[in-house]
Each structure stands twice: as structure tokens, then as C-alpha cells.
Amino acid sequence: MSTESGRIAKRFAALKAEGRAGLVTFITAGDPDLETCRALLDGLPAAGADLIELGLPFSDPMADGPAIQAASLRALHAGTTARKTLDLVRGFRTKDADTPVILMGYYNPIHAYGVDRFLADAVAAGVDGLIIVDLPPEEDEELCIPALKAGVNFIRLATPTTDEKRLPAVLQNTSGFVYYVSIAGITGTASADNAAVAGAVDRLKSHTDLPVAVGFGIKTPEQAANIARVADAAVVGSAIVTRIADGLDAAGKARPGLVEDVLGFVRDLAAGVRRARG
Predict the structure, then answer these.
(1) Of 53, 121, 128, 232, which one is the catalytic site residue?
(2) Among 35, 56, 146, 276, fewest CB within 10 Å belongs to which?
(3) Is 53 a catalytic residue?
(4) pLDDT (tens digit, 9 = 90+) per residue, 13-56?
(5) pTM, whole model, 2 decimals?
């Protein structure tokens, strides 16, 4: 399957036909344990997630704030590996053939796995895209180019500090969509200024025909709706991961009702996104 005709392209085309933005949800693979994560992953599409980002747990997630760092550690303590992450996607695909799944994380676990083997196994499992935050465009031969050749979208981040000189390099081999990081800094901290986001989306769209998804700092259905008015998708990660953490007992185990509570929050976010454009 080519990156131009895959699930991500089809989903954004369908959203455009519906006249609305999408909701992209992030959870960390194996957080708080593989069984609970499997239930969350399987339930996200019905709760309103249009695309799913699944975090590859890593011991040093330097671009992430405390919530996602803690989620990564919980997942690692639960025994989650890159192979088990792909197993989660494989299981998800037996129930859902259409919702795009994007793995988000850092290069180290993929490098340790072996790039060619990882890409072959990712394609076989049903992975649609990769967001690898610590590989700049100068390192495209390392993973980006092999991923594109394998039919896996390679999604790049643009930030408020990505200037006109840098932007062409960022966009050159990007596919699927562009992920605009609406604030400078780590995930799950400040919230974005709506006018600044609208201007940034316009600027990106003057350089690319790819959809633009906006994330970092979206915590409420109202904030998701604000983003959905100006972008092609709103990405919510830390707020969902925090909701998972809130459902754990003192020993870090999932309390009864955690999955239903998190999916209920996703439904509220989805409702905000869906009503954003009237």
C-alpha cells in the first residue's frame, strides 16, 4: 500500500468530505498494563477517535512532559516492548480495519529492533505511520526513507520556532499529515493561543497540501473545538494519559471503571471536535 492511498489519506479525505476536523488520540502502548491498554485501544474508534497515536515506550522520552514520561515508565514496568506494541496493533486490526494507527516515540527502540525488520513487522501488524521525534530531516536515510519505501507514512513535527528557512527541509519527506506543535516546550504543559495557531496553520498550508494536525496543550473539549475550527485535526495526548493515571490505585493498578472513564472523556473530546464547525 502506498503512503498516498493508505488509511491516513483515506481518513483525512473522509473528514474533508464530512466538513469537519478529526480527533487524534494518544495513549502509550502497555499503559498501565497490556490488558487495560488493549481495551482502551480497541474502544477508541467507537468513542470518536478518528486516528490513533500509540506511544512506543522508552526510558528517556525527552520531548515529553511528566504525564507521558510516567506513562512510558508504567508501560516499561508492565513489560511492554516494541514487539508487544506491534502485537497490540495486530490485535486491534482484527477488530478495526480502517482507523489509522501511528506509532509515536523515539528512534532508540526501533534501532535496537533493526530498522528493516521493524518496518516489515510494523506493516504486517497494520501500522500506518511513524512520528519519531528525535530524528531530524538530516537523518532521513536512517528511517524516514526506508519507511516511505515500505509504505509507512513518516509524519514530521513543525513548531513555533520552525522558520521559513527550515520549513522546506521539515516538509520534504513528510507524508500523511504535518503535526504542528502549538507551543514551545514539552508535552502536557501550557495551552496554545488560538489566533497564533490559526496563523501557523495558514502558514503551513501555504507550503504543503498535507493535512495539518495540531497538538500539545489541548486538555478540554472546548480547547479541542477551538483547534478543530482552524486545523484538519486536534491531537490530545497528555490529558488522556492523565485520565488513565487518575484511574490507578495506590499500587499503580487499574481501578474498575478506568477504561469506561477514559473512553467517556474521549467521547466528550470527540463531541467538541464534531460541533466545532457548526
Answers:
(1) 53
(2) 35
(3) yes
(4) 999 999 999 999 999 999 999 999 999 999 999 999 999 999 99
(5) 0.96
